[in-house]
Amino acid sequence: MTNTMIPEITLNDGNRIPAVGFGTYKLKGNEGVSAIESAINHGYRLLDSAYNYENEGTVGEAIPRTSVPREQLQITSKLPGRYHNYKDAVTTVQESLYRANLDYYDIYLIHWPNPNRELYVEAWQALIDAKKWGLIRTIGVCNFLPEHLTKLEKETGVLPAINQIELHPFFNQEEQRKWHGEHGIVTESWSPLARANDVFEHETLKKIAEKHNKTVSQVVLRWHYQLGAVAIPKSANPTRQLENISIFDFSLDADDMQTIASFTRPDGRLKGQDPAVYEEF
Ligand SMILES: NC(=O)c1ccc[n+]([C@@H]2O[C@H](COP(=O)([O-])OP(=O)(O)OC[C@H]3O[C@@H](n4cnc5c(N)ncnc54)[C@H](OP(=O)(O)O)[C@@H]3O)[C@@H](O)[C@H]2O)c1
């Protein structure tokens, strides 16, 4: 199946990415390969993996099992916190490429800022250089607060093209999204379906879904799209994979958008992972 239904958006480096991608956390081994192969066949072109998901090889294995040419896919991986120093970061990008059997990544992100270690600028410099060497097309970050992004720009002159952050109806990141918009950074939403916690049974979301003759998942993913955020829902199930990209034939109205925004809570993060203090290695 060819993908003509997912619109694209332009990044600050001129590259274009699909407005919805596919999350791969927990997709590993034979089952993971099948799920990713199915996602590509259903029309996903942006795939999100990470060194720490231990599934770059799974993604790399799925790609040639489809008939979609490599250049039509956008493959993402991420640099773990334990490899932020410059030399380790460069080696890790190379190792990620070997694992996936790729000769370039479309997108490579710093996974967490781990600000207490004060090494994320070094990691960023390594990604800037890896991009110059042709190992990566687009560089970005995850979970960076405005203060971390400002530091990257001040010390290297380069702002990320993408910041992938926790974003779902219970944590809508209004201020961070506004900051991204003002600085030309595209927001990607991780756990866009709140990892299936309290979303699909939510009475108000069910009502909005009924009104549009859509599923709750489609309403939530459409909400991300209308916010201008690139959601990367994960599903191991082919039917749900297709459902999650079938969101471009309806619109939420201003009331729907406002109602969904009202579900946000200061403590709405799924696991309380505040990037100012949370560390992941
Ligand atoms: N940068 C970071 O720090 C970070 C952190 C977390 C996640 N991520 C990325 O973000 C991606 C997405 O986040 P996530 O995997 O945490 O959670 P998610 O995409 O919000 O939710 C996935 C869960 O929702 C279920 N689901 C998906 N579509 C559904 C549908 N249409 N109807 C009912 N259930 C549905 C899935 O079950 P089935 O598989 O059974 O369908 C799974 O249990 C990850 O896979 C990863 O690539 C990044």
Question: Which SSEs are present, and which pair or pack?
Answer:
Elements: E1 8-10, E2 16-18, E3 22-23, H1 29-42, E4 46-48, H2 56-62, E5 74-79, H3 86-100, E6 105-110, H4 120-132, E7 136-142, H5 146-156, E8 162-166, H6 174-182, E9 186-190, H7 203-212, H8 216-227, E10 230-231, H9 238-245, H10 254-261
Parallel strand pairs: 3-4, 4-5, 5-6, 6-7, 7-8, 8-9, 9-10
Antiparallel strand pairs: 1-2
Helix pairs in contact: 1-2, 2-3, 3-4, 4-5, 7-8
The structure holds NADP nicotinamide-adenine-dinucleotide phosphate.
NADP nicotinamide-adenine-dinucleotide phosphate binds next to helix 9.
InterPro entries: AKR, Aldo/ket_reductase_CS, NAD(P)_OxRdtase_dom_sf, NADP_OxRdtase_dom
Organism: Ornithinibacillus massiliensis
Family: Belongs to the aldo/keto reductase family.
Describe this protein with a few key phrases.
alpha/beta; eight-stranded parallel β-sheet; two-stranded antiparallel sheet; 10 strands; binds NADP nicotinamide-adenine-dinucleotide phosphate
Question: What's the short version?
Answer:
The protein is α/β, with parallel strands linked by helices and 281 residues long.
Described by the principal axes of the CA atoms, the overall outline is globular
Helix-strand makeup class? alpha/beta
- Contiguous low-pLDDT stretches (5 residues minimum) are none
List bound small molecules. Answer: NADP nicotinamide-adenine-dinucleotide phosphate
Name the beta content range: 5-15%
The helix tally amounts to 10
What's the β-strand tally?
10
Strand order of the largest sheet: 3-4-5-6-7-8-9-10
Order of helices and strands: EEEHEHEHEHEHEHEHHEHH
The radius of gyration computed from the alpha-carbon positions, rounded to a whole number of angstroms, is 18 Å
Mean pLDDT equals 97
Largest sheet: 8 strands, parallel
Distance from first to last alpha carbon: 38 Å
Task: Tell me which oligomeric state these chains represent.
Answer: single chain
Helical fraction: 25-40%
Protein name: Aldo/keto reductase
Keywords: NADP, Oxidoreductase
InterPro entries: AKR, Aldo/ket_reductase_CS, NAD(P)_OxRdtase_dom_sf, NADP_OxRdtase_dom
Pfam families: Aldo_ket_red (PF00248)
